[in-house]
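Reopening this one. Same input as before:
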Amino acid sequence: MKHVKSSHEVATMVEGGKLLSQILHQLLDAVQPGAIPLEVDKLAKQLIAQVGGSPSFMTVNNYQWATCISVNEGVVHGIPTTTPFQTGDVVGVDVGLLYKGYHTDTSWTIQIKNSKLKIKNNAENFLRTGEQALKKAITKAIAGNRIGHISQAIQETVEGAGYSVVESLAGHGIGTKLHEPPQVPGVLTRPIEKTPLLQAGMTIAIEVIYAAGQPEIMYGNSDGWTLVTKDGSLSGLFEQTVLVTDSAPRIITPF
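Same output, byte for byte:
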C-alpha cells in the first residue's frame, strides 16, 4: 500500500512527533485568562522554528497560521484572533509539524481555570469523554482491524455519554502530506468490513471531533475557516498521530 511507511520514515515521524508533543504542551500552558490567541500562534511559530521544522498548517493553501485555536462553540479551523481568553473558556489547540519532510498532527482541548474562582457549569465530563473516546479509538489501530473499528469506538463512547460526533469532519492518513488517505471518520456509516483495512506501517491522525449538543456545524464568521456548532453548544477536539502495528498501536504524538 502506498501509504505504508518504511522503518526510516516511521523513525523520522516519531522524532517529529515527540517534538510536536512538547510544543503542544507549551502552547496549552500559554492558554491562560487574558492571553491572546494570536500570541499563542506566534509562540507556536517560534517553537516550531527552534526545532528546525515548519508549520504543517501553513502548507494548506491560503492558511497563514501555525495553529487552529477553537474556543467554546468553535469546532475546528479556528483562526487565532486578538480576543483574550477568559476563565471558563473551553479552548482547543490544534498544531502540526513538518519535520524532515514528514508531518505530524495533534490537538487537545482544555478548560481555562483559575484556582481563585469557582467555575460554574464546568466542562470536565465533556472533556473527559473526548479523551476516553480517543484512547479507546487508538486501541483499535491494529493491523487486521479496519477504519470502521476506530470510527465505532469514537461513536459509541461519545454518544454513550450523551454527546454528538460531528459527522461531517474526520481524521486522516498523514505522512509526506498533511492529509493522506484513508479518511478516519468518527462515526460508522457502513458495515465495518466495507471500511479500509489497517496495515502495519500506516500512520493516521485519529480525531475525536464532537459537540455537547447537536452535530451540525456552520461557519462562525466571514473568515472562511472557523467552523462552529450550529446550536452554539460546546465543542471539543482530541487528536493524536498514531502508527498502526501488528500488536499495540504506537502513539507518535504522546500527550
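So the earlier flakiness isn't reproducible anymore. For the record, Residues 62 and 225 are 10 Å apart (CA to CA).
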